[in-house]
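Ligand: manganese (II) ion. Inputs:
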Amino acid sequence: MEKEADAIAKLMKTTPTEKERALIKKAITFAENAHKGQNRASGEPYIIHPIETAKNLARFGMGTTTICAGILHDTLEDTETTEDTLRENFGDDVAKLVEGVSKLGKLKFRGQIRHIESLRKLFIATADDIRVIIIKLADRLHNMETLSYIKKEKQKRIAQETMELHAPLANRLGMWKLKGRLEDLAFPYLYPQEAEKVRATLKQKTEVTERDLENLYKKLRKELAKFHIPVQSAGYRVKSLYSLWKKLKEKDMDIEKVFDIVALRVIAPTIEDCYRVLGSIHNHWRPLPGRIKDFIALPKPNGYQSIHTTVFTGNSVAEIQIRTPEMHERAEFGIAAHMSYKETQEIKIGLRKKKENNDEDTPVWIKEMKILQSTISEPDQFLKSLKMDFFKKRIFVFTPQGDVIDLPEGSCSIDFAYAIHSDIGDHVSHSKVNGKMKSITAELSNGDIVQIETSKNSSPTSKWLSSAKTALAKKQIKKYLDEHGGFVEKIKRAIGFG
Ligand code: MN
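Predicted complex:
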């Protein structure tokens, strides 16, 4: 156990204290006893899996509490261990995290559910502490790495789930490196032939491009030294297999049209240095028009920051990415990076400009997250408040078919009906909630199954307008009243009610 605890400690961003190290060791011993006699599909003792999960968490930059919960993450589901025992031995926080992970494990994502986006939200709402999701992702990463041992029939389903649920979640949390890993692990199980082809193409192309970039970097280094521009480090990043495939499909499968297969990545200490590096590059290599992207001044909607440029190197073109260490950390580990970095001014820059690419794909909660990030300086506090205040104000309601509709708290069946279709909304007459008849203006709760009945004779009234909560429903009701209201008023007047 000593060895495993040391291995985890070595991967941690901040060296754990004696007390923390002891707790990690205790968790390993506890988990090993709990899982005694159990084996992985690979035939190895089960304990290997929770330890690998914990190592992933350490790599993400998570602290002792999350790491301990990672070691214990399967004890509630797969062993005799109770939550009380966990609480007595490891405290409230660890016990709650393990319980959260077990709860997520019970959500089944098969068939039925068509709204994958709502599903992701449901996943997050159920988790209620963001660390639970991070543990789940660390767990999934190891499961994907060992997927080859699983029965063939199951492999594809697990890979699909990873592609549709876990990779997008990692993306939402800004953990882009992890997202790429998960996608690349799932890719060959879902599209074996395509994956093989792309792998071969990439390998060939990478060798040539890397040589090119190496030469370029040697020259650049000299140049930067001459002007005393500091560079912390540099390296290459090879495009992930799956994202290359997606790009290739856009470019008629022509690899020559993809410029960022291998990119040179330069890390400079400050934002100012980043721009000086850029200047120096453009001074020596002609940039490709339209390929200079300043994501430092104009961050991507998901918060990504870097300067990208593509230059002619003589025999080919090369993409160069320039960023500060903080931006790099954030790009690699996303939310987890905030465990070790308190917020600096960059986030504020991120908040200031949002014009570019401000598509609806940017979830509101990412924006809220950014606001949280800039207002809370204590990282632990930050993670706690990420219990997603946003989601507390949302409810998740199901159709009888299992589709998830998310609504603001206080919504009623009218909102639900309009969320499905404006025609259904305009004619909703009755509502069955969890099998019981309810007034269509009655407030819905999280997890309700709602069945809407419509009738030709039913139509929006001003009472509907005051009961509806969503902007969509209100808009549709107003529209209906505007178009039909005049007529009804006229009749009322004609028969003496006006
Ligand atoms: Mn597990």
